[in-house]
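Quick one: structure tokens for this chain, please?
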Amino acid sequence: MEELLSMRGVAVDHATVQRWVYKFTPLIEEAFTKRKKSITNSWRMDETFIKVKGEWMFLYRAVNKVGNTVDFLLTKRRNRLAAHKFLLRAISNNGCPKVINIDKSGANREAIRTYNKRRLKRIRIRQCKYLNSRIEGDHRFIKWRTAGMLGFKNFESASRTLTGIRRDNPR
């Protein structure tokens, strides 16, 4: 970004660009969320891990059957409460799916069951490892994008950076 602006005659420090990212990323994400296309009724939900400041943090993610990102949440813990928080956030932003495909994760299964009991809805849980391969492949993309970095220094910057590199069109 510095180089692009310097080619146009504007001198900008990299710290200024970072401040812009911190300030404008939430606004841009909010605008994109308003204009986002509807999500299909079949989701794939899984979690992976990313190192932040030397500690492992968990990245809960959901993609639709086409491979577009539904939502994600970076948390410090991997448990039923974190999975439930992620599920509530994804449903509030994108609507309620009919089917969610998960791996053998007990936390995700319990989060969906809890949601079904509390909301009197019926989200069907499907555990098929072959259908979940799309999100596993998407994890590889996230790992590849973050591997070149020296690591995240704090939780907030990791969350904002992951917002920017979420993948909406695989291939």
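The beta strands are 42-52, 55-64, 69-75, 99-101, 124-126.
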